[in-house]
Amino acid sequence: MPTKWTINNAGGGGNSSELVGCHIAAVGTAYQFQTPSGTMVSTTPTSATQLPTPPFDFPMFNSALAGSTAANWYIRVDSLTDGDTHDKGRGKWSPNPFPVPPGPADTDPDSWTTHAGVGIEPEEGDDEDNDKAAYASPKL
Questions:
Q1: Which is it for the CA torsion 55, 60, 63, 64, positive or negative?
Q2: Three-class SS of residue 84?
């Protein structure tokens, strides 16, 4: 399994472009959400024995990420082992809190995915207003 995923394309609308270049990294027994420069802006709680098992949420953080204006970010990781090669991640992001524990949201948050390799996989039934995807490649 990769230890770092980089978001290449965040879809359209809102501040989604600020996710471009951000990372999800496995560090010890926690996952970090990092800015494009590698600065950690949120981390899952650490465990003495293992990484969190998806689904999990990063604690809310306020950052400009790859943009110029800071905003509140809520990031959910639904999987980090999707795809034919089991190294594709997927999840959701939102400017609003997700329900706790992780589960269906009352509002339609935007989604992200990570992908090994290059290019963008088209999604069937792509609704530009409600389904913005981010794609990333893992670093082993």
A1: positive
A2: coil
Q: How many CB atoms lie within 10 A of CB 22?
A: 26
Say how many C-beta atoms besides its own lie within 10 A of residue 1's C-beta: 10
Dihedral class, residue 38 (left if φ above 0, else alpha if ψ from -120 to 50, else beta): left
65: part of which helix (H) or strand (E)?
none
Q: What are phi and psi of 24, to 5 degrees?
A: -115, 125
pLDDT tens per residue, range 92-128: 888 888 775 555 544 556 666 665 433 334 344 444 4
**Phi, psi angles (nearest 5°) of residue 28:** 65, -125
Cα–chain center distance at 88: 11
94 Cβ contact list (under 8 Å, min separation 6)? 74, 105, 107, 109, 110
The token pair at 67 is 């943009």
Comparing CA positions, the residue from 109, 103, 120, 99 lying closest to residue 13 is: 109
Beta-carbon count within 10 A of 84 CB: 7
Note if the pTM is more than 0.85: no
Q: What is the pLDDT of residues 61-83, one digit of tens each?
A: 999 999 888 999 999 888 888 77
